[in-house]
Amino acid sequence: MFRKTVYGFTAIAVAVAGIGLALANHSPVSSAAAPARAESVHVPATYDSMDTSHDGMVTEKEAMAAMPNLNFKAADTNGDGQLDRVEFLDLQEKIANGTWTNAVPKKEFVKQIKGYDEDPVDVVTKAPKGTLKNPYDSANITVVAEGYQQFLNHGCNACHGGNGGGGMCPPLNNGVWIYGPSDDTLFRLVSLGSKKLQEAGYSRVNKETPALMPQQGGTTLTKAGDLWKIITWIDSMNMKKGN
Ligand code: HEC
Q1: Which atom of ligand 1 is nearest to the CA of 211?
Q2: For atom 27 of ligand 1, which residue has the closest CA?
Q3: Which of 110, 165, 171, 209 has a CA 20 to 30 Å removed from the CA of 85?
């Protein structure tokens, strides 16, 4: 058990170090590839004037031809290799009000899965029993690190302890699962809380604490994707909890 717990935290440390490195690599000060200075970027008045191929999209090449001092990666916030209209307006506005820095913004959380923003309670209501599967892999250390961050963001640590090792409420890293270990059951328990889960026909198969967990879905936890990341982190501490 100890080894498994350590694994979870090693993963987080590695991921955090990775983010630090990525930022260092993209810093406009230290990177030779980054263009000179943000204040020397001159943005054309219109988007269409940069679109020399007239296909409705500004490619990196077209953007760089119009704005040689732009750090394209910083402007291409969704990372699709093109400067779209929203990104252009954002750039234009930031240059105008002096807040453009040419620095690559901090990396967004891992690529969003389908239905990421859905309310977990809606997801549970729609999906037949036993059909929910975690779209993330617990070997993905970035998702594991983000899952731990979400666990803290959503205040789960108040009851389950800062490291998920339990406190007033059951530990999440001891391999003992009150209603069973499956992704489907854990997702439902956290979304609905113990009372509604039991009303839906689930009963305890293991004893850990007599307390009921309050519903989290739709209250503090409004995104299914956040919850899957938390479950991925929980998985990583238990290696394979079985589905
Ligand atoms: C107010 C305290 C409280 C908060 C906040 C809370 N939990 Fe719980 N949690 C509990 C209790 C109590 C149980 C045991 C439920 C039962 O026995 O019916 C539990 C059970 C669980 C379990 C199953 C544990 C097992 O051993 O089977 C998981 C997973 C879980 N919680 C995750 C979360 C997550 C993720 C969050 C944050 C989004 C969270 N909890 C927030 C009190 C809480």
Answers
A1: 12
A2: 177
A3: 110
Q: Say what the pLDDT of residue 5 is.
A: 40
Q: What is the CATH architecture of 120-237?
A: Orthogonal Bundle (1.10)
Predicted TM-score (pTM) of this structure: 0.64
CA 86 to chain centre: 22
Buried b (16+ CB within 10 A) or exposed e, 124-157: beeeeeeebebbbebebbbbbbbbbbbbeebebe
Residue that is written with structure tokens 């589905």 in the block: 243
Cα–Cα distance for residue pair 187/235, rounded to 1 Å: 12
Question: Mean of the per-residue pLDDT values for the chain?
Answer: 82
Q: Which of 237, 204, 200 is nearest to 215 (CA)?
A: 200
Structure tokens at 226: 């956040």
> What residue ranges do the domains of the chain occupy?
28-102, 120-237
Sequence-ordered list of residues with C-beta below 8 angstroms from that of 158, at least 6 positions apart, any chain: 167
Decide which of 2.60.98, 1.10.238, 2.60.120, 1.20.140 is the CATH code for 28-102.
Answer: 1.10.238
The pLDDT of residue 104 is 73
pLDDT band at 73 (very low <50, low <70, confident <90, very high): confident
Q: Is the CB of 176 under 6 A from ligand 1?
A: yes
Best substitution site from 156, 176, 202, 221 to test ligand 1's pocket, by max atoms within 8 Å of Cβ? 156
Which amino acid is located at 95 in the chain? I
- Burial tier of 169 (Cβ tally within 10 Å: 0-12, 13-18, 19+): middle
Long-range pairs of 93-98 with CB within 8 A, sequence gap ≥ 24:
95/41, 95/43
Token reading at 182: 């499956």
Place of tokens 């943000």: 38
